[in-house]
């Protein structure tokens, strides 16, 4: 009859590494607090013994779970994916793990996910969307937890009231940059393609202001899917060919549909930028190597992540915040898909 070996304990790791149990605990929870040589000895012992820390027991002692939650709209958004990667690296250096959940732009799903997250006694929470239901807002406001919101700076005629500090950019300014660029590039019938929500409404307001201010034209607006898809851009070009849409410049509020439109123009033989100028949002890596290369509004996602980690740790350590909100700005990167007309 076979018998299972008992799982390794913290004291087994300490004995093998030749250090105290307290040193092992410190190395696992706060690796930056022990020397490199000691940490390597402990990590080697952990690997040899197959030791798995009892996080529940550790939380009872320290009052910390070592877990930061991140509620995002969709992991398929390239900007969010890059931000999450840098966030995870920054948190890991301080001994924290990142727990990720998708809301997929559903307020019901966001509320259920938030309840599940708060039940896990997180050390901090990151929200990648600034607009919430009244039910979710009440839950967030009553939660005693360090909280950082991403992307959506308070702005507009009636600015939203953040429930935490915000690291983001002006959606209005991003839309205005795209509208201004299309007009300056010679396009006289620019159109806006994005989802109908608070965030996209701000981008359209900026886009509309820039176009009207420059050439006195009311830009058209067309709605796309809440979760950006390549097929959205395909559908736009097919409608353009059928005469259902009349525009010579297009601003898509995500690079995915913008690239779908670009590739469909190539397939159908429509000249870009001659027949249609295309501008995206997010500046995905493929935007630089597409043919023609895609003009896009760039958000410095690495800076978003770095600032978020800094503010979050200040809150966790109960330090005075270095800033209430952080505006990382945005930049329009002009490429071949909107090249100036001669």
Explain what the structure shows.
The chain is of the alpha/beta class. The chain has three domains: 10-53, lambda repressor-like DNA-binding domains (434 Repressor (Amino-terminal Domain), Orthogonal Bundle); 67-169 and 301-327, Response regulator (Rossmann fold, 3-Layer(aba) Sandwich), CATH 3.40.50.2300; 171-298 and 331-338, Response regulator (Rossmann fold, 3-Layer(aba) Sandwich). It is 45% helix and 16% strand. The chain has 13 helices and twelve strands. The strands form two sheets. Strands 2-1-3-4-5-11 form a six-stranded parallel β-sheet, sandwiched between helices. The longest helix has 18 residues, at 198-215. The model has no long low-confidence stretch (mean pLDDT 88).
Mean pLDDT comes to: 88
* Total number of distinct structural domains: 3
Point out poorly predicted stretches. none
What is the terminal separation in angstroms? 85 Å
CATH C-level category of the largest domain: Alpha Beta
Number of separate helices = 13
Count of strand segments: 12
**What would the CATH topology of the largest domain be?**
Rossmann fold
Shape: elongated
- The helix/strand series, from N terminus to C terminus, equals HHHHEHEHEHEEHEHEHEHEHEHEE
* Fourth CATH level, the homologous superfamily of the largest domain: Response regulator
Question: How is this fold's topology laid out?
Answer:
Layout: H1 10-17, H2 21-29, H3 36-49, H4 55-62, E1 67-72, H5 78-93, E2 97-102, H6 107-118, E3 124-127, H7 134-142, E4 147-152, E5 165-169, H8 171-184, E6 190-194, H9 198-215, E7 220-223, H10 230-241, E8 249-252, H11 255-268, E9 277-281, H12 285-289, E10 295-298, H13 301-316, E11 325-327, E12 331-333
Parallel strand pairs: 1-2, 1-3, 3-4, 4-5, 5-11, 6-7, 6-8, 8-9, 9-10
Antiparallel strand pairs: 10-12
């Amino acid at each position: 009859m076979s018998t299972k070996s008992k799982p390794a304990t913290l004291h087994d790791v300490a004995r093998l590494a030749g250090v105290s149990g307290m040193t092992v605990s410190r190395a696992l929870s706060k690796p930056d607090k022990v020397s490199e040589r000691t940490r390597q000895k402990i990590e080697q012992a952990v690997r040899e013994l197959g030791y798995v820390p009892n996080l529940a027991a550790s939380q009872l002692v320290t009052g910390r779970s070592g877990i930061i939650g991140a509620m995002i709209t969709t992991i398929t958004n390239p900007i969010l994916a890059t931000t999450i990667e840098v966030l995870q690296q920054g948190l890991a250096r301080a001994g924290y793990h990142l727990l990720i959940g998708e809301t997929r732009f559903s307020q019901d799903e966001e509320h259920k996910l938030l309840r599940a997250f708060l039940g896990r006694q997180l050390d901090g929470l990151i929200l990648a969307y600034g607009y919430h239901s009244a039910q979710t807002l009440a839950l967030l406001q009553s939660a005693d937890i360090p909280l950082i919101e991403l992307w959506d700076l308070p702005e507009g005629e009636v600015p939203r009231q953040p429930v935490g500090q915000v690291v983001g950019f002006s959606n209005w300014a991003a839309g205005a940059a795209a509208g201004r660029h299309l007009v300056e590039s010679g396009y006289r019938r620019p159109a806006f393609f994005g989802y109908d929500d608070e965030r996209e409404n701000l981008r359209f307001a900026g886009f509309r202001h820039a176009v009207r201010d420059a050439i006195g034209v009311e830009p058209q607006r067309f709605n796309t899917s809440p979760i950006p898809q390549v097929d959205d851009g395909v559908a736009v070009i097919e409608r353009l060919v059928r005469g259902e849409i009349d525009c010579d410049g297009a601003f898509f509020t995500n690079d995915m549909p913008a690239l779908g439109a670009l590739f469909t123009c190539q397939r159908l033989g429509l000249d870009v930028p001659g027949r249609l100028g295309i501008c995206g949002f997010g500046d995905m890596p493929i935007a630089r190597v597409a043919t023609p290369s895609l003009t896009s509004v760039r958000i410095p996602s690495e800076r978003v992540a770095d600032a978020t980690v800094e503010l979050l740790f200040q809150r966790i350590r109960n330090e005075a915040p270095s800033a209430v909100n952080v505006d990382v700005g945005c930049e329009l990167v002009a490429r071949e898909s909107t090249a100036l007309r001669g």
